[in-house]
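Exercise 7b. Backbone tokens:
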């Protein structure tokens, strides 16, 4: 497609799980040709989280806009095929445990001998080098190690409960795209390639930088606050009418507080001097939250949100998936799209969250079946004959879909 931002850029993805797969998906959305290297003997572990290797919901979200080359890297012929492909590529991404790519002879030092101007991004949990560099990590442990998990709870929780959302993984994938785009620009200006070492744990650490600063300056160790905020009250998620219905509300200034009280009809408790300013409201936040929830509990969450927003108070319904899918703003933006996958059929996925005025983007394509594009990649790029492809499959070097 003429004008696609990354048209003509080829990416070889050795990604597994979330970081590099999601990184490759975004590059594919921008028009790059992303080739996923995988095999049944060593599949992307996200493939194993569904009934079959081709029906994992998480995999099918993070691996859209790619082609799959089924190839056994444990064979010498398999590695040679990949090396031939690398010579005609621009970017390599990998997030295997430290040392795996070197064992294949496909680490940066090995690859740059094949393609001196290659851009190679490596993203391990603890990064390259140092005492933890060879440790295998998993997304949900990154919040624990970085300190995020110590904050991700309510004050009365018996332990840091956290979330099953691997937030650092998905932030890391976006920052990886930024780093690679910068490296592409550097190569365009200088002709030189680049090795990018991105430690996922450092990405997690950047998300709570002010907590480290508070400790270094004030020697304070921040405690979990749940939905509360040290600069705002009321500030929380309040129960509304109905089963498991909630609305988030934030009141920061005294002027906002007065407007909030007017919406409530100025009941007697709002005139209590202990709520007159932000310091008083923070000191009496338990009582304040209880009184606010007495008002919200008898009203629909949507009504609470619209009423407060109408007077300039920050408020939002705590939406569940069905509400989000039907949200009129997200519908207008085209934020949720339908993609037809050859195994799981039509499913809803997040769309591309940005729009270019002058650069058309290609439509999102479904995640590939394992080895779905093996034959076409071998024919298109490597000029293999049908006989050679057949022979390499018989030898266990190449793989095609099982369906």
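Sequence design result:
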């Amino acid at each position: 497609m003429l004008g696609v931002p990354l048209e003509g850029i080829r990416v070889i993805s050795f990604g597994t799980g979330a970081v590099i797969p999601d990184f490759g998906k975004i590059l594919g959305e921008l028009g790059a040709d992303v080739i996923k290297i995988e095999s049944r003997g060593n599949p992307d572990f996200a493939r194993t989280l569904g009934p079959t290797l081709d029906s994992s919901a998480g995999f099918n979200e993070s691996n859209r806009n790619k082609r799959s080359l089924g190839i056994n890297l444990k064979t010498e012929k398999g590695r040679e095929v990949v090396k031939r492909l690398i010579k005609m590529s621009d970017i390599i991404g990998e997030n295997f445990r430290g040392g795996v790519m070197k064992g294949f002879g496909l680490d940066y030092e090995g690859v740059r001998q094949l393609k001196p101007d290659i851009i190679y991004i490596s993203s391990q949990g603890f990064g390259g080098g140092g005492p933890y560099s060879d440790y295998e990590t998993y997304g949900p442990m990154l919040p624990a190690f970085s300190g995020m998990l110590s904050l991700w709870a309510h004050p009365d929780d018996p332990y840091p409960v956290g979330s099953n959302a691997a937030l650092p993984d998905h932030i890391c994938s976006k920052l990886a795209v930024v780093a690679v785009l910068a490296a592409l620009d550097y190569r365009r200006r200088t002709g030189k390639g680049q090795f990018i070492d991105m430690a996922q744990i450092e990405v997690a650490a950047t998300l709570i930088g002010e907590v480290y600063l508070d400790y270094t300056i004030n020697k304070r160790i921040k405690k979990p606050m749940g939905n509360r905020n040290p600069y705002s009250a009321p500030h929380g998620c309040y129960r509304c009418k109905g089963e498991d219905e909630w609305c988030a509300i934030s009141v920061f200034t005294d002027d906002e507080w007065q407007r909030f009280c007017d919406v409530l009809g100025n009941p007697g408790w709002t005139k209590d001097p202990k709520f007159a300013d932000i310091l008083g409201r923070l000191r009496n936040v338990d009582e304040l939250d209880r009184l606010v929830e007495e008002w919200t509990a008898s009203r629909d969450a949507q009504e609470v949100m619209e009423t407060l927003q109408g007077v300039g108070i920050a408020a939002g319904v705590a939406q569940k998936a069905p509400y989000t899918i039907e949200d009129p703003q997200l519908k207008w933006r085209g934020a949720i799209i339908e993609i037809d996958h050859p195994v799981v059929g039509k499913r809803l996925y997040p769309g591309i969250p940005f729009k270019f005025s002058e650069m058309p983007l290609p439509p999102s394509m479904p995640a590939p079946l394992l080895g779905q594009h093996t034959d076409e990649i071998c024919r298109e790029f490597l000029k293999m004959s049908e006989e050679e492809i057949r022979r390499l499959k018989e030898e266990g070097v190449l793989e095609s879909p099982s369906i």
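Instructor comment: The longest strand covers residues 33-38. The radius of gyration is 26 Å.
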